[in-house]
Amino acid sequence: MVQARATQARSLRALARWSALATLAMLLAGLSFAEGALAQAFESRAPRAFLYDVNSRTVLYTQLADEAFEPASIAKTLTAAVVFEAISNGSVSLDTPLTISEDAWRRGGGPSGRAAMFAELGSDVAIADLLRGLTIISGNDAAIALSEGIAGSERAFAQRMTDLAMELGATNSRFSNATGQPERGMRTTVRDMVVVTTALIDAYPDLYAMFGEDQFSWNNITQRNRNPIYNQIEGADGLFAGYSDEALYGLVGSVERDGRRIVFALSGVDTPEGRVDEARRLVRYAYEDFRTVRVAEPGEPIAFARTYGGSFREVGLVAADNGALELLLPQEGVDRVRARVVYDSPIPTPIVEGQLLGRLLVERDGTIIQETPLVAASTVETGSMVQRARDGFLELVLGWIPPISFAGTF
After folding, report:
1. By the 8 A CB rule, do 372 and 359 touch?
2. Of 131, 23, 57, the residue nearest 326 (C-alpha)
3. Dihedrals φ, ψ of 291, to 5°?
4. Nearest-angstrom CA–CA distance, 59 and 61
5. Is residue 211 within 8 Å of 237, Cβ to Cβ?
6. Rounded distance between C-alpha atoms, residue 179 and residue 181, angstroms
7. Sign of the torsion angle spanned by Cα atoms 123, 126, 132, 135
8. pTM for the whole thing?
9. Which pLDDT band holds residue 3 (cuts at 50, 70, 90)?
């Protein structure tokens, strides 16, 4: 078996046959908007930044995405994620009461002088209220109380945060507490924060909606949403901002406009005003400097993969949801974007319609910016003995031929 890019050589005659991906490359080649377009159309002023389009699963911008830094309060994204997971798996419910310990009150509540929901010492507070204290006003007392009530101790909860981050693919993050208070070894990256945030929004949209509530009242104290981009950037509905002496001002945020959602994280900005300004620039770039291009209609194969021992010699590859295949492409520098289909070839039969077979990879300057799962467009049954023998012979004769790529520059 060899890995194929676009369509693998199916026979000597197939070398002369253009695939659907070849047509795609030719079509998109005409979308180069200007000769000599800028290789980098946008440059963030934040030392570390990552911008992601959720709908198309496209990376829009990245700068020092894997450089570690102190997360400060944006670590609470993981705090919320662990609590959401505990609610989802039935370990707790929104109505479960948790007691405000002296540590939660003293280190995270009113006496701390930090962001707090001002829960009273020794009081029992429902998880729903603690979550609002966390998501709306970034309350440290809420974060500590949730961690103690769900995991038994804040340290054990922090380990859950790290474990969950790893499971989600945020492999460069380590957490020591639920609030983000700087501690030795506590680290994250802007890429990791976007990975976790995207998963959180995808998995728990109803619970995520708490982030977008305007205010929260507790203990006769009403506080407005503390997210600095809330009501400052159209469509902003989450998540957290943070500051530490080492990492300076950071933010993980999400914006939704007309059904299209983006998630971004930034770190290392000098001032709180600069943090909001840079968030605004990232959002403007996401919504104004990209266009959606349809490259395949619903059910239309983007490529054909060679089968082995099947009743048909090839099978079409379509988008996983059998919908239209669309790419989000930059207005400038589009000539530096390439696409290729990858799959293990030949694919053994039987093949079931909808079976995951490959991926469409879109790359810009050698970096993968979009990845779309591709599935079988139809069922291919195992062929006759003669057909299987034929494919075995062709594999012996042609198996050494390197993959042929029909991908081209857009």
Report:
1. yes
2. 57
3. -135, 150
4. 6
5. yes
6. 5
7. positive
8. 0.80
9. very low
Ordered domains of the chain (ranges, CATH): 2-35+293-398 (2.60.410.10), 48-287 (3.40.710.10)
| Beta strands 48-53; 58-63: pairing state | antiparallel
* CA 103 – CA 82 distance, rounded (Å): 20
**What 3 state SS string does 136-169 have?**
CCCCHHHHHHHHHHHHCCHHHHHHHHHHHHHHHC
Q: What are the tokens at 268? A: 């290392």
One-letter amino acid for residue 332 of the chain: E
* Total residues found in the chain within this entry: 410
- pLDDT tens figures, 302-356: 888 888 666 777 889 998 876 788 888 888 777 788 888 888 867 887 889 999 9
Which residues 6+ apart lie within 8 Å of 49 measured at CB?
Answer: 61, 62, 63, 64, 65, 190, 264, 265, 266, 267, 278, 282
User: What is the residue whose two structure tokens read 């253009």?
Assistant: 18
